[in-house]
């Protein structure tokens, strides 16, 4: 294993110490593994939090800040955050208007967020949850009942965070997040497996001439393995899966994310985006907004995902609203 | 070779088509390989351009926009842009106040930018050049006489671009860029070699338990190979090289870039940043501003670089000035 680490068991805490040093405008509790926006809790503002296993950076810690998340709770690598941790984050951002949990659909995450929500409820904090399950590759997976939550999480967090900033209620913020999830579909392809620090070796074996079609962000199996194809055919596969699962009427507007899984360079992501843009144009879909880069990653996995989110004027307005976080920043 | 490409010879043009689709606010000439800020040329404003071989994305195309570069000319992967291309970019951004070329110190880049500057001069465009040679690992290298230009290029481009935005003269913009370069030192370590699309295999062999200390951004040899070390010792090596080459007085302020070379995930870069911050604090250096991420890359190379730039109040003011580019954006 070749990684810039000191101790496989300390990777998350040491990375959190680095985040704390790099972003003094965030409050980072390294021991409890919580990243909180400096001005939280804000009285009357709904708190928006997310979390999940580490290894998907910048998700979620990189999205904490004005206009997006109020807090993130990273678990150990590919391991759910624990209920106490989520509870502490929930209480840290509760300004009296309630808290929205944005939860990717993995069994451990769902269970632990739900337990934290119940504990918070016992302490008088109103918690609403949004489940993200945008990955259309497979129904049920290694750690998931139903579909996995992946790239759309970023869009859900941006839109919910922007709405919370306007003083909307917790129910309204959660409903907006749920609508974005419902309108989103993602599909990923891996060229290599990722290596967790604790395992020290790739999570699966993939022959030099094959790719995993429909991979999950922890290396979960996809639909099938097949011979490596040219980029435009990879994009065609992904768009076909996305548009079959969630058809878009011609003339629809969409937010599109072409996302690297950590080990794929930006030059390839832009090349892929060109093919995605051409494919969606052919389908009559207008890309109203886009992001190209490494946002929802899988450690060092070479791979990519495409997320297409149907977006109405309200969603676009919330997408465009100012945001100031380590990994997403505009208008502020 | 596992890459998302269609044709090894078309990678740069196809990536440029993707950049054009993703960023309609830039003018991209895919055939001539030039990316120009939409509002260029602006009468009376100095044009700032850079370029070099592709494969280092987001450098340079990702830094075109308000407050930074007016144009970028990407060559083929790891290959200098040609004089005609640089000349066309120079003329495209000349608003009558002259143009500044920011050139990384590689022999082909230096030669071709100089030729373009002479041709532009013949056509009445005043061109000033800034040579970036911040990599303190080695004197002379595979494609370089003197020191290589690497991570500091981003800081030079930001500061020069911000100064140009204020209406400063070409001579002043170039002088500011040169001062930033002079105040900067970088050092890189590779865990793996990168693979160019045309070669189809890694540029060098590196055993599973070794790292290349002082590597260049094209995989040029560094100072030595040695056994893989824990991250904090890797950082200590890098900071020792940097502070030996360009000592910083205790109490100095610095802009620090912890940069991934393309295949290293963000969680490791933050972990490294924590060690860099601790090391510089020990040396009495105050990190006034920082960037952590993949900015000056080497395709899919797993590796990192550290850049330390001594920064006075004027440099910090220009660093903080609004910027609006695909890869760097704040205050706008």
Automatic annotation (TrEMBL), chains A, B:
Record's catalysed reaction(s): dihydroxyacetone + phosphoenolpyruvate = dihydroxyacetone phosphate + pyruvate
GO process terms (BP): glycerol catabolic process
Gene3D superfamilies, alphabetized: Dihydroxyacetone kinase, domain 1, Dihydroxyacetone kinase, domain 2
Segments forming domain DhaK: 7-330
A GO MF label: phosphoenolpyruvate-glycerone phosphotransferase activity
GO cellular component, one term: cytosol
InterPro entries per the UniProt record, alphabetical: DhaK_1 (IPR012736), DhaK_dom (IPR004006), Dihydroxyacetone_Kinase (IPR050861)
Transmembrane segments: none
Domain of life per record: Bacteria
Pathway(s) the chain acts in: Polyol metabolism; glycerol degradation
Keywords of this entry: Glycerol metabolism, Kinase, Transferase
Principal EC category: transferase
Subunit structure: Homodimer. The dihydroxyacetone kinase complex is composed of a homodimer of DhaM, a homodimer of DhaK and the subunit DhaL.
PANTHER family on file: TRIOKINASE/FMN CYCLASE, TRIOKINASE_FMN CYCLASE
Protein name: phosphoenolpyruvate--glycerone phosphotransferase
Species of the source: Phytohabitans rumicis
């Amino acid at each position: 294993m070749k990684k810039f680490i000191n101790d496989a068991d300390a990777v998350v805490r040491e990375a959190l110490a680095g985040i704390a040093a790099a972003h003094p405008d965030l409050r980072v509790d390294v021991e409890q593994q919580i990243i909180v926006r400096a001005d939280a809790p804000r009285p009357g503002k709904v708190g928006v939090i997310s979390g999940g296993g580490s290894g998907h950076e910048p998700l979620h810690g990189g999205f904490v800040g004005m206009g997006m998340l109020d807090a993130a709770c990273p678990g150990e690598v590919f391991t759910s955050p624990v209920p106490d941790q989520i509870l502490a984050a929930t209480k840290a951002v509760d300004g009296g208007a309630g808290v929205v949990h944005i939860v990717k659909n993995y069994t451990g995450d769902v269970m632990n967020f739900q337990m934290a929500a119940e504990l918070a409820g016992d302490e008088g904090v109103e918690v609403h949850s949004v489940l993200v399950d945008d990955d259309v590759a497979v129904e049920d997976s290694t750690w998931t009942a139903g579909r996995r939550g992946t790239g759309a999480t970023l869009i859900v967090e941006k839109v919910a965070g922007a709405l919370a900033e306007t003083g909307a209620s917790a129910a309204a913020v959660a409903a907006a997040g749920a609508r974005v999830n419902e309108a989103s579909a993602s599909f990923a392809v891996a060229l290599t497996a990722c290596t967790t620090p604790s395992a020290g070796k790739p999570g699966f074996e993939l022959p030099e001439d094959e790719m995993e079609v429909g991979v999950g962000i922890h290396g979960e199996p996809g639909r099938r393995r097949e011979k490596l194809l040219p980029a435009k055919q990879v994009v065609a596969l992904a768009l076909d899966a996305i548009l079959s699962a969630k058809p878009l009427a011609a003339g629809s507007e969409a937010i599109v994310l072409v996302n690297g899984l950590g080990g794929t360079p930006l030059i390839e992501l832009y090349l892929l985006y060109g093919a995605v843009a051409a494919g969606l144009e052919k389908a009559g879909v207008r890309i109203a907004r886009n992001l190209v880069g490494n946002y929802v990653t899988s450690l060092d996995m070479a791979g990519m995902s495409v997320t297409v989110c149907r977006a109405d004027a309200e969603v676009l307005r919330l997408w465009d609203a100012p945001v100031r976080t380590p990994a997403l920043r505009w208008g502020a």
